[in-house]
Amino acid sequence: MIAELISVGTELLMGQIVDTNSQWLSQQLSAMGIDVYYKETVGDNPKRMRDTIEMAIRRSDIVITTGGLGPTEDDITKETVAELMGEPLALHQESLDALERYFAGRGRPMADINRKQAMMPVNGITLPNHRGTAPGCIIEKDGKRAVVLPGPPSEMKHMFTTSVVPYLESISDSVLRSAYVRVAEIGESTVAEMLGELIHNQTNPTLATYASTGDVTVRITAKCKKGEDASAILDPMVQRVQEILGDNVYTVKGEPLPTVIAQLLTEHQKTLALAESCTGGMVTSMLVDVPGCSAFLKEGLVTYSNEAKARLLGVPMALIEEKGAVSQEVAHEMASRVRENAGADFGLAITGIAGPEGGTPEKPVGLVYIGVSSQSGTQVFQVNFSRNNRASNRLGAAQRALNLLRKKILADLT
Amino acid sequence: MIAELISVGTELLMGQIVDTNSQWLSQQLSAMGIDVYYKETVGDNPKRMRDTIEMAIRRSDIVITTGGLGPTEDDITKETVAELMGEPLALHQESLDALERYFAGRGRPMADINRKQAMMPVNGITLPNHRGTAPGCIIEKDGKRAVVLPGPPSEMKHMFTTSVVPYLESISDSVLRSAYVRVAEIGESTVAEMLGELIHNQTNPTLATYASTGDVTVRITAKCKKGEDASAILDPMVQRVQEILGDNVYTVKGEPLPTVIAQLLTEHQKTLALAESCTGGMVTSMLVDVPGCSAFLKEGLVTYSNEAKARLLGVPMALIEEKGAVSQEVAHEMASRVRENAGADFGLAITGIAGPEGGTPEKPVGLVYIGVSSQSGTQVFQVNFSRNNRASNRLGAAQRALNLLRKKILADLT
A261, A287 in Cβ contact below 8 A? Predict the structure, then answer.
């Protein structure tokens, strides 16, 4: 089955917003074993939209549109798709009721123009919108299928997950289940190389790698007949991938690294204190993004200046002057002192040269020392990112620090 | 002049990476007064790529491709475009020399397959790649123009800026100059509404709004004949936009808000200390992302727990218990104490309920207090984001805090 994605919106053509919908949909469809051969973006121009959708219906089995379901005259995606599929629209009472409830819940009357959003294909499937106003729909005709979805990502994703996925499963005799293995410290090309044979010979389960900021996700998808147990196919492959990628795998369930660390610390009732120099609060902020972080987070100190390292942490100024603020010794002191001062179980410290200035031949831009401390001792790791990009050096240092902390916690627990 | 963008790559169709190139190119072309009517993504399949590029050449004046210039057999964008434009390829000695220098500089020999990257259109314009291996090219034929660019964003952007922009200017009798007005605290739809009349009646200069995380950019572009002074057209419009949007405009030169604050503090030799609760180090990290932040940043404290607020800042525990950690009074103490403890000129403090838990009827999720302190006094601002999204509440609080700090610094300086 071949799908084609059409994103509608002049603001996409102008570059005013990024089209994240089509990437997300590509991933979902790929995980369901549906290939995407083409993606297009068109504006609100009737003729160009019509031509694009017509061609897509001709050459693909499923056409999925996002956007252009608003109440104004410019919003013509649903009307264009319905016309091309030869399907009349009529007022859909249930959708109208939902629209009226939506506006009533916000204390304002529904404007007349919004009635247009409740005009739905007579023989199609109406998809309720639980996150906004415009319902979506599915129209089937002569073996072709058109799926019309709203543009706002939160509405589109919710509608796809709750309505379109069950629909696609209903027209298939198989079901799919995916595992998401996430790995730190190794780049996407290395991951792809390590899994080369598995990826090359994939049949069922299938594998794909996705790069996100700072780490890599491996999607593993098993397909089986309805009623069969997918885990019999899925689990052995998940285990093989884990074995190949080793202890940098931090989850097989898809959660981000800070969440994994938060769960580890909370579950074992351990606490953490941080001292950050070049990362400047980024690591602490990543952990604070996890709800419930108060259970384990004692405090975070951004000691960018030497004075702050001395005054807030008690690192001897003589040591900083002798060894330099970016040194094995200062990272060691930062990690152990922040832990002791805060009375925490774990201490994490980062000091490095983020660039673009401040590098020397001995200590180049991208050099970072990461200290992890607990009652079992303090270790310092040297990493050299050697990238001439302040933002990516800082992000790389933050991700590496979190993974080293995770390994330290696991080592202490066993 | 109508442009069409084609992104090449199976990894884009699979959703393995986001296509940021096409958004960036859309913005650049829009600023040059060139309309984009269609954007497509295709994989490495020869027939589908050929069909897509052929259609684009037929219906648009300029076709810009990104990606598919690698050394392998799969990489066929340049070959396909050249064939469709009826243009032979031949070995381009200069490009081959550059490739060999590139590999020599990295201490490894050039593989034979890389020679393919130096095959360039005989009558076309070769665009050198100063950031990677594959050169790009421009082919002109029968009033149509094809621009072939590499896929990696850093290579593509550099090539576009240094080679394609001058080319597009050379085929036009006019030049363009843009100003980027950035504004905090107001959402994109409000900005668009405030500028409604200007946007509606735009001719020269043109205006467009772009939403980014946390703030809005207004692009103002003036077009004039070569040799004329663009600022005579541009400057009055920049001033009008500033007047309409008021004191939330923080730059007309496009820099991000943390950079503007860093420049203000550095220029006036003022220093800053921060105490963050719900933002958890995010504000400090945004400032540390600016190179040279050591000139003004004394320290940042992440005092998420009540104990940290008391121990690190000296906020009386009785006050926290009486008024609550999220209160006007505690924000006041946090801001003034972090400033005094650090001996800084300015103190900034944020305490709030990021959610999803922790809200009450009196203090709902999204309630944030922001304290700004200097010798001239300490003010606390209450903001209610009332979004049920921890990440966006935290980002909103961080952006608002930075803008309130900016206003305080400006008020103190005048």
Answer: yes
- Domain A2-170 indexed as CATH 3.40.50.720: no
Delimit the domains of chain B by residue range: 2-170, 174-251, 257-413
Whether B304 has its CB under 8 Å from any CB of chain A: the answer is: yes
3-state class percentages of chain B: helix first, strand second, coil last, to nearest 5: 45, 25, 30
In eight-state DSSP terms, residue B9 is: -
SS3 content of chain A, % helix, strand, coil (to 5): 45, 25, 30
**ipTM of this complex prediction, to 2 decimal places:** 0.84
Does residue A35 or residue B300 have the better pLDDT?
A: B300
Q: Which residue is listed with tokens 């803008």?
A: B403
Of B63, B77, B81, B9, the C-alpha closest to B41 is B9
Q: Which residues on chain A are in Cβ contact (under 8 Å) with B15?
A: 22-28, 30, 210
Confidence of residue A91 (pLDDT cuts 50, 70, 90): very high
**Nearest-angstrom CA–CA distance, B218 and B240:** 12
Say yes or no: domain B174-251 is CATH 3.30.70.2860.
yes
pLDDT given at position B73: 84
> Torsion angle, CA of B298/B293/B396/B273, rounded to 10 degrees?
10
Q: pLDDT tens digits, residue range B275-292?
A: 999 999 999 999 999 999
Place of tokens 């095959």: B119
Amino acid at A69: L
Closest CA to A96 of A74, A116, A78: A116
Contact B291 A342 (CB under 8 A): no
For residue range A95-120, list pLDDT tens digits in order.
999 999 988 887 778 888 899 999 99
Mean local confidence (pLDDT), B340-367: 93
A36 touches chain B (CB under 8 A): yes
C-alpha to C-alpha distance for A151 and A287, rounded to whole angstroms? 31
- What length is written for chain B? 414
Q: Which two tokens stand for residue A29?
A: 């469809």
Chain centre distance of CA A252 = 15
| Nearby residues of A217 by Cβ (< 8 Å), 6 or more positions away | A180, A181, A182, A183, A209, A210, A254
Residue A95, CA distances (Å) to A106, A124, A264, A294 in order:
17, 13, 45, 43
Closest CA to B182 of B402, B411, B16: B402
Q: What is the pLDDT of residue B357?
A: 87
pTM score of the predicted model: 0.85
Tell me which CATH homologous superfamily contains domain A257-413.
Answer: CinA-like (3.90.950.20)
Q: Which two tokens stand for residue A305?
A: 């200046």
pLDDT of residue A107: 79
What is the number of CB-based contacts under 8 A between chain A and chain B?
A: 226
Provide the chain A residues 263-302 that lie in CB contact (below 8 A) with chain B: 274, 276, 278-285, 287-289, 291-294, 297-302
Q: Which residues of A fall within a CB distance of 8 Å from B192?
A: none
- For residue A222, what are the β-bridge partners? A177
What digits encode the pLDDT tens for the residues A150-176? 999 989 999 999 999 999 988 888 888
**Torsion sign across C-alpha atoms A325, A330, A336, A337:** negative
Checking phi first, is residue B269 left (phi over 0); if not, alpha (psi -120 to 50) or beta?
A: left
Whole-angstrom Cα distance, residue A146 to residue A64? 6
**B372 with B332: CB under 8 angstroms?**
no
Q: What is the DSSP letter of B123?
A: T
pLDDT score of A213 = 67
User: Which residues between 328 and 347 in chain A have a beta carbon less than 8 angstroms from any beta carbon of chain B?
Assistant: 342
Query: What type of residue is B14?
Result: M
Give me the pLDDT at residue A124, please.
96
* pLDDT tens figures, B157-166: 999 999 999 9
Strand partners, B209: B218
